[in-house]
Amino acid sequence: MEGGGGAQYNPRTVEEVFRDFKGRRAGMIKALTADVEEFYQQCDPEKENLCLYGFPSEQWEVNLPAEEVPPELPEPALGINFARDGMQEKDWLSLVAVHSDAWLLSVAFYFGARFGFDKADRKRLFNMINDLPTIFEVVTGAAKKQTKEKSSVLNHSSNKSKSISKARESQVKFSKASQPKDEEEVLDEEDEEEHGETLCGACGENYASDEFWICCDVCEKWFHGKCVKITPARAEHIKQYKCPSCSNKRARP
Questions:
Q1: What is the model's pLDDT at position 44?
Q2: Residue 245 — very low, low, confident or very high, per pLDDT cuts 50/70/90?
Q3: What is the DSSP secondary structure assignment for residue 206, as one 8-state letter?
Q4: Residues of 197-233 as b/e, b for ≥16 C-beta within 10 angstroms?
Q5: Of residues 103, 77, 93, the one with CA closest to residue 141
Q6: Interval 79-89 mean pLDDT
Q7: How many helices (H) and strands (E) does the chain have?
Q8: Alpha-carbon distance 149 to 137, whole Å?
Q9: At a CB cut-off of 8 Å and minimum separation 6, what does 146 contact?
Q10: CB 75 within 8 A of CB 65
Q11: Integer Cα distance of 99 and 78 in angstroms
Q12: Is omega for the bond preceding 70 within 30 degrees of 0, making it cis?
């Protein structure tokens, strides 16, 4: 069965199949979220076997299965209406969502098989599909949770990268005194943004771009030059700086 503007539509490339997938997916998500009241009413358990269809036009439809055998396309799960009143609504919607995900994949790879996608095409199609949250994840709210967790991981990675980059950027700080004024102002702004929360390992005060700082190449802590008695001129001749604490540690035998 193909309705909702989907009749005689046969995607032939990976991009076209993916576009078809996204349209059908959007329609089914709409049925299970924004249009859920209407969808619930249409799934009357007193009716015959009903299916939820999604179309490339981002529309959805609850209807009887196709009469052709075999059907033109793989068919969605039959009888979704029969289970409606036998379980809690959220559990029923989650069940329909799972079967909808399975149907979307079957349709996408049906097109892939029909039009001769090779291994690379199938892999590319799957990766494109896999980058989207499943209908189940959207309906149950798991997609939002994953987005928050991913954001948290990215923030952690960003902070870690900043920490690692501090040692590399120490040479930039050392040479500030010899740079033109306009470049120095740009560096000051960037340093303020990146190291605004950095604390001196000696006095515990916040980072300030108008003061000379130096990073220990061992523990990677930052220090005011005045706190560790290092001047910009002297820092330019230090290949590897060790803070007082690391310098006092005994070398391993």
A1: 95
A2: confident
A3: B
A4: ebebbbeeeebbbeebbbbbeeeebbbbbebbebebe
A5: 93
A6: 94
A7: 10, 4
A8: 14
A9: 133, 137
A10: yes
A11: 10
A12: yes
